[in-house]
Amino acid sequence: MLQTRTAKLRIFPDDEQAVLLRQTMSAYSDACNYVSGLVSSGKVRPDRYRLHDLAYSDCRSMFSLPTQMAQSVIRTVTASYKSLRTNISSHPEKFRKKKGSVVPKFSIPQLSLVRGRDYSLLWIKEHTERVFSLNTLEGRIKVPFRSDAMDWAFADGARMGTAKLVFRKGKFYLHIPVTVEVPDPPEPSDITDVVGIDRGIRFLTVSYDGEKTSFMSGAEVKQKRAHYKKLRQELQKKQTSSARRRIRAIGRRENRWMSDVNHCLSKTLVREHPEGTLFVLEDLTGIRTASERVRVKDRYVQVSWPYYDLEQKLTYKAQMNGSMVIKVDPRYTSQRCPVCGHTERGNRDKRDHVFKCRECGYTSKDDRIGAMNLQKMGTEYLLKAQKVS
Hints:
By secondary structure, the chain is of the alpha+beta class.
């Protein structure tokens, strides 16, 4: 089966090339803002074909963009308006307080590069070194890069898509979606291990494989997220443009850091279990709308915790390792006794983090119970699948 992942590769332009890349990125962003302004002024709808008729020539003449980049500008603006409409319909409460019309703005220099037209991978020095050939306002340049642990992006059969050039803290990166071939999901008869994974805040994950329980503490993550929250609150009180820029920068930094935490965590979970493992997660769809059941002081942490990001990373890493992930109904997984099946809210003491079944007396850490029940549900799922097959 096919899987698409994003390879994040650092490139190393020389000083002259770096200036040229920055100029190209700025021109691209300026063109995006120009086209977005045409839409916000009512001159044209955010339709790719209508925008092309109205703005393509301007992008070429006013911003000196090459042909493909001018077309990419129109696609970028169209996609931004489509994403904005989706966000407004999904979360209208976030946009009610905003004054005036909401318009996509491209304040951060960016650049989309279409493979084959705007960038390509070349071999140099008798096929011993690879470089990227990138299109700019003044033609092509060749820049070396570092792939680190992303050699999978250059494997035979891997297909690269449209790349994004990113400039952050004085460094250039290419973010490239790569479609690669991964093993098909294992058949029920090929499953060798079933692991229940309970996600939470006190412990990022608690995993149980039928014998061993592993706890990944979330204390450090919770503390650091609280630090970022405090910084944002202090900056919000200033109500200045520089403070707002700083808030956005802190948010991006926190997102990058949390993404790396989930990357390392999912990698560890997959590495610690063999090929052919069935990972069982709770289906947490709708958890962000469940804030009415959470204390106000804990609401921010509860609804902003990146459960879905961890789920995505675990899913694609498991696929690459010949394993698979399923999601099951989360109801009562923390209240049901994994031994006798008795379900009662009083089984769990949240304050002391103890689970004691009022029917059979089974006692354990409450954080462990969810993972045990998920592992049991995964085993039942597997037995049913094997009977069907």
